[in-house]
């Protein structure tokens, strides 16, 4: 089992514990990968800083989160997005990208290819055309080349007769010994196919569809064996996310649960051998807020 520092959240209790070797937070000798789960409320937006300082942005949250995503990028000195990935055309994933495309330089886009007939999707397409950004349609099982130290594989994308969520781009990102699964909004049917491709245990799982009842079966979790589970949702969402079944399933496989609703922005830093989970807030902060 790899050495790691993990910050454990059981929804209400935060516990720090350390394994054999301390994680080196500051070291010029180690090229870190950073994954930022940006708190955009009810939606997804994830920033990946690769070891060679390339920037990948996965989704942009709902329309109202666009300014927050841009501010977050600027705070972390991201001047160029080398690859923007729009997992699927639902408003809580591409809504904020309209603002991002207007204000941040984007080199290229990977899109699911799933078309949608909403006003926000039309604005997203219009900005791509206006900025003349190259777009590639994701292909299942293909690798994404952006940093030679990372192995990035497309596990799921659009096929005919699939819904928006079923067409989500799901990704496996591997840096040496550390695996991330970004599940977007895929459903149980797609999880069944994805689990056949996962040969190793997964360190970090971005839970599909904000913890909805459509996804995250116990069979899937038992197959991938996640150590850490990240839930992205708004505390006051009217969908009931995350549902009790998903939370119970995560507990059954002994995954540590983190949520943007409770902890705000969540950053994971890794040198490919160990990793550190850094939440913006402590889970009890909201209880003492005025």
Give a brief rundown of this model.
It is built from nine helices and 19 strands. It is an alpha/beta fold and 290 residues long.
How is this fold's topology laid out?
Elements (H helix, E strand, L loop, with lengths): L4 E5 L4 E5 L14 E5 L8 E4 L5 E4 L7 H10 L4 E2 L1 E4 L4 H4 L2 H7 L1 E2 L2 E3 L7 H13 L3 E3 L5 E2 L5 E7 L13 E6 L2 E5 L5 H8 L8 E3 L11 H7 L3 E4 L12 H9 L3 E4 H4 L2 E5 L4 E5 L5 H4 L2
Parallel strand pairs: 5-7, 6-8, 7-9, 9-10, 14-15, 15-16, 16-17
Antiparallel strand pairs: 1-2, 3-4, 3-18, 4-5, 11-12, 12-13, 13-14, 18-19
Helix pairs in contact: 1-3, 3-4, 5-6
Describe what you observe in this structure.
Strand 15 (204-206), helix 6 (218-224) and strand 16 form a beta-alpha-beta unit. This protein has helices spanning 66-75, 91-94, 97-103, 119-131, 188-195, 218-224, 244-252, 260-263, 285-288, and strands at residues 5-9, 14-18, 33-37, 46-49, 55-58, 80-81, 83-86, 105-106, 109-111, 135-137, 143-144, 150-156, 170-175, 178-182, 204-206, 228-231, 256-259, 266-270, 275-279. The chain starts with a strand and ends with a helix. It is α/β, with parallel strands linked by helices and 290 residues long. Helix 1 (66-75) crosses helix 3 (97-103), helix 3 packs parallel to helix 4 (119-131) and helix 5 (188-195) runs parallel beside helix 6.
What is the rounded distance between the termini? 42 Å
The low-pLDDT segments are 1-30
Percent in strands:
25-35%
Strand order of the largest sheet: 10-9-7-5-4-3-18-19
Element order: H for helix, E for strand: EEEEEHEEHHEEHEEEEEHEHEHEHEEH
Which word captures the global form? globular
Query: Share of helix among residues?
Result: 10-25%
Largest sheet: number of strands, sense, barrel closure: 8 strands, mixed
Strand element count = 19
Compute the number of helices: 9
What is the structural class? Answer: alpha/beta
The overall pLDDT, averaged over residues, is 89
| Alpha carbon gyration radius | 18 Å
């Amino acid at each position: 089992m790899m050495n790691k520092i993990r910050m454990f959240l059981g929804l209400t209790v935060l516990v720090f514990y350390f394994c054999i070797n301390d994680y080196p937070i500051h070291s010029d000798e180690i090229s870190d990968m950073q994954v930022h789960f940006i708190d955009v409320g009810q939606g997804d937006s994830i920033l990946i800083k690769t070891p060679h300082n390339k920037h990948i942005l996965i989704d942009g949250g709902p329309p109202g989160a666009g300014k927050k995503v841009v501010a977050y990028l600027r705070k972390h000195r991201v001047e160029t997005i080398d690859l923007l990935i729009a997992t699927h055309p639902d408003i809580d994933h591409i809504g904020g990208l309209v603002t991002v495309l207007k204000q941040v330089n984007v080199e290229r886009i990977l899109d699911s290819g799933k078309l949608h007939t909403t006003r926000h999707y039309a604005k997203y397409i219009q900005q791509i055309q206006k900025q003349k950004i190259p777009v590639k349609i994701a292909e299942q099982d293909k690798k994404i080349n952006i940093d030679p130290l990372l192995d990035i594989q497309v596990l799921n994308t659009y096929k005919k007769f699939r819904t928006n969520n079923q067409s989500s781009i799901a990704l496996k990102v591997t840096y040496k010994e550390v695996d991330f699964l970004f599940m977007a909004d895929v459903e149980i049917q797609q999880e069944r196919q994805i689990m056949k491709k996962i040969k190793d245990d997964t360190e970090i799982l971005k839970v599909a569809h904000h913890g909805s009842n459509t996804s995250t079966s116990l069979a899937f979790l038992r197959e991938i064996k996640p150590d850490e589970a990240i839930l992205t949702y708004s505390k006051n969402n009217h969908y009931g996310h995350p549902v009790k079944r998903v939370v119970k399933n995560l507990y059954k496989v002994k995954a540590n649960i983190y949520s943007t609703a409770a902890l705000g922005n969540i950053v994971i830093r890794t040198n490919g051998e160990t990793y550190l989970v850094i939440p913006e807030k402590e889970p009890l902060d909201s209880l003492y807020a005025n």
